Amino acid sequence: MIMSRTEAAPDQARGDLTERLLAGLPAEAVLTDPDITASYANDMASFCPAGAPAVVVLPRTVEEVQHVMRTATELRVPVVPQGARTGLSGGANASDGCIVLSLTKMDRILEINPVDRIAVVEPGVINATLSRAVGELGLYYPPDPSSWEMCTIGGNIGTASGGLCCVKYGVTAEYVLGLDVVLADGRLLSTGRRTAKGVAGYDMTRLFVGSEGSLGIVVRAVLALKPQPPQQLVLAAEFATAGAACDAVCRIMEGGHVPSLLELMDRTTVKAVNDIANMGLPETTEALLLAAFDTPDPAPDLAAVGALCEAAGATQVVPADDAAESELLLQARRLSLTALEAVRGVTMIDDVCVPRSRLADLIEGVERIADKHQLTIGVVAHAGDGNTHPTVCFDATDADESRRARESFDEIMALGLELGGTITGEHGVGVLKKEWLAREIGPVGIELQRGVKQVFDPLGILNPGKLF
Amino acid sequence: MIMSRTEAAPDQARGDLTERLLAGLPAEAVLTDPDITASYANDMASFCPAGAPAVVVLPRTVEEVQHVMRTATELRVPVVPQGARTGLSGGANASDGCIVLSLTKMDRILEINPVDRIAVVEPGVINATLSRAVGELGLYYPPDPSSWEMCTIGGNIGTASGGLCCVKYGVTAEYVLGLDVVLADGRLLSTGRRTAKGVAGYDMTRLFVGSEGSLGIVVRAVLALKPQPPQQLVLAAEFATAGAACDAVCRIMEGGHVPSLLELMDRTTVKAVNDIANMGLPETTEALLLAAFDTPDPAPDLAAVGALCEAAGATQVVPADDAAESELLLQARRLSLTALEAVRGVTMIDDVCVPRSRLADLIEGVERIADKHQLTIGVVAHAGDGNTHPTVCFDATDADESRRARESFDEIMALGLELGGTITGEHGVGVLKKEWLAREIGPVGIELQRGVKQVFDPLGILNPGKLF
């Protein structure tokens, strides 16, 4: 366990640290006002403890990041890297006396190359900024987490984040070709490549993706791009039971279709959305399925998928006629989390991914857990991936309700593992699920992961207390 | 460096080893006849030294593999895992006194699930066997190395192999969701998942893919499948210069097309094919480009690509009318390596991958190198990926020609690195390129890769002498 120097004589130690940092960083890049540094303590997860940072640094260059890491190594101070802090697992939460290393000022798009279909970016680039920039050149950066208007590419890489597009286009990991990483001791490592293929040595690039800042600081990324697909056309289908909707998902995937999104909202979520907005969703809807296709001619797929939904028992099937109508149909889905937050003030968002053939079992189990704990738990799901976000609604000022919320959150992860799934499809482990990681990957897995961590961060200063 | 016990008293030590292996393996799974074990010494690479195995084992179960590894750990004997030995880098070559661990008898397809779109297989399953089995269910396992009728899935995973499909469908790595791995000490590790997504902890699955048997023995793999696409339609285009063909590749990729293959043959290769078969290729062809599309309606893409080829200076554009004609057009490509082998008896196949925008520079450079060394070097390329296979033809009985062949092979790798590429797009490092790995990934990269190796294989018994 690494101890920050602040434990001995906090003010003195912090002064030393600040002074050392200022030797290689401009004054405006080093924040020490406790009111300001405290505002960097948390990401968006509930139930995750956070400490008070000693200092927040906002480097603008690779050299400045190297200076921060050399200083941290020398003084044995923990470093917590941060992007936009939109994470949902506490992976970016500060620890007491740490250096918060915010990468948000390193936000340049360095290159977009339409022939090689790559972009080279700094970690602080906002996902939406990159998506729009490549879109202007007819290119497409698929990963689209819900927070895409705010979250950074560096954060996306750290958590290997996903989104609605994954059922067709895969997750962030599949778009990271190469990285420049500042190591714990300040040395610079280049991994991977800027070519379409490459297998020279162990895949270190992939090791950093999803490592939640625990192995090194990503300071530059080479990302793969795709050509911009045609605008997607959406179909909405209502079902009288969640089981029927899940059956439709299985039929669609078994039928060989490749939707560009395949999302599910359960009745709790539909009701929550109805409560805050008039979306025209029938109160009797037990499950709403949204499927989309972005092929040059989506009509045959939409017709076939509509028929499969009806065969599975859909009570209504509404295909959009154009992009505008498609966007309207997606509005309800986009409002889901806001609507569920409004139910009891706070939510805890699970991220269990199961084989899609077990989706119905998961949703049924979540209903049982909600009944048992007398809580509202809405399920929104990237159904095509089997990746569900059971969202536990609770009143954080009510201690008993908060306890039940945490218990049900954990029971949902246990259920996910029981169904052959994983505790996290796209949000990461962070602080929130670190006890659960061991249950998923077992003692041999943990031992080897710790061994790898030790290779990259022998002093344990990189984002300590996360993952394991 | 690990020393096999055979160094002290070879026969005695080999006897001990065999006896210990037989305690957990049936007699027919342990081969000790030197004539037979010698036949397991090599894969298909030229210029790669190989030793004499002490014993070859052919386990059929996970438990038997565990027994082999426990025995090897106890006796400190190196273990060289092997699939079908179709590799081109010497990665499966035996070392003196080693246990050759052939996984070819673990060849069961354990599960094919069309809803979850996964297959679960043992490592010895032949690529083509799996491809056909999933094809019967309307599914598709894309990775298609040239050796697909012989090579095993375990070998494909070990080398992260590619093929013609990669320009649209990516490499083997992208299809490996989870693994069961027997570690150096015989313990069993499960990595990854059978779900579409999952980010619990470091990506250990990906670490094993391409690790060339140096981190553990893959005994089971969960593979992602796609729906079977329509049969592809091929277009062939002839060019008066290789540069014009490369220009066409850039225009096609920049134009947003997604071909299911995009292959290039240079004039040397075309000539070699003409010399062994009458394929109707004009002797004046300086470069032949093959593009294919497997969308429901490939006509618009084929027309557009044909026009782009003409704009880039194609002298002839021949689109196929149907699948049979498409297959004919691909025949020349499929014959390329056989044809180049016939030139001087032996070939050394480079595997340099460059950004596709530098493809023309690479081909031009290879011509210079061929001239300098007075050798025939044909280039076949997965052009859409920038992944080239400059194939050095030489007479292995001629010492000087062999020396020049090896020199030109190395010069091509140097050129690839100079152009921002990698020394290996899909064949791996093995023995052949291990000095080059350090040049590509640098001393910090090598140090960290060695550190990772040490975590998984502290005694250094797994495929020693490969990669580093």
From TrEMBL, chains A, B:
Pfam family, one: FAD-oxidase_C
Protein's organism: Streptomyces muensis
UniProt entry keywords in alphabetical sequence: FAD, Flavoprotein, Oxidoreductase
Family in the record: Belongs to the FAD-binding oxidoreductase/transferase type 4 family.
Domain FAD-binding PCMH-type per the UniProt entry, residue ranges: 49-228
Protein name: FAD-binding protein
Xref: InterPro entries: FAD-bd_oxidored_4_C, FAD-bd_PCMH, FAD-bd_PCMH-like_sf, FAD-bd_PCMH_sub2, FAD-linked_Oxase-like_C, FAD-linked_OxidoTrans_Type4, Oxid_FAD_bind_N, Vanillyl_alc_oxidase_C-sub2
A GO molecular-function descriptor: oxidoreductase activity
Superkingdom in the source lineage: Bacteria
Cofactor requirements of the protein: FAD
